[in-house]
Design brief:
Number of strands: 0
Oligomer: single chain
Largest sheet: none
Strand content: under 5%
Number of helices: 9
Shape: elongated
Helix content: over 70%
Structural class: mainly alpha
């Protein structure tokens, strides 16, 4: 039933319906379920839309856990692939554009998708500091922005920028060069 509901939303969006005009009633009718079935799973359409976007994106990557560098590369590679997918998927591109004009949806997306990923990234960097792989005099939030920023900039702010294979490794290795502890 959950799949039918998510597919119902996708169908409506593919037919050109803006997020702002979608109602739970219309989604239920399209999915062939009652409104109660939707409300049992989601508190409102904002949470439902976030799940629609999540379902359309590639799954979260499993980290290799072999080193901080490998985990960071895996996370950036996931961002790179998500950027490529968003470019090739008219639905994802459209939904992301519409989400930005809906503060409640954008806020829900951040809480459910962005915040957990950021917490994981920060955890990896803290582990790197504890293991002596990273300087301890640089704030982990800032370090995270230094790793993730270049990929986000290319995928979001420069939609025509090249996202070649090996870009994740190049970004991580370049940033790590400046964040490794200086030996005395």
């Amino acid at each position: 039933m959950e799949r039918a509901i998510l597919e119902g939303v996708v169908t409506l969006l593919e037919d050109g319906m803006p997020l702002s005009e979608l109602s739970i009633e219309r989604i239920a009718r399209t999915a062939g379920v009652g409104k109660a079935a939707i409300y049992r799973r989601w508190s409102g359409k904002e949470e439902l839309f976030v799940d629609v976007v999540r379902a359309a994106e590639p799954p979260d990557v499993e980290l290799p856990g072999t080193s901080m560098r490998d985990d960071l590369v895996a996370l950036l590679e996931q961002l790179r692939r998500r950027g490529l997918l968003r470019r090739s998927s008219a639905l994802l591109h459209n939904v992301h554009a519409q989400m930005k004009s809906s503060p409640k949806v954008w806020s829900a997306y951040h809480a459910i998708v962005v915040a957990p990923r950021r917490r994981l990234q920060i955890e990896i960097l803290r582990r790197g500091q504890e293991n002596g792989e990273l300087r301890t005099d640089v704030d982990v939030e800032l370090m995270n922005d230094m790793f993730v920023g270049p990929m986000l900039f290319r995928t979001i702010m420069q939609p025509d920028a090249d996202l070649p294979e090996g870009l994740s490794e190049q970004i991580v290795d370049t940033v790590l060069e400046g964040l490794r502890p200086v030996s005395s």
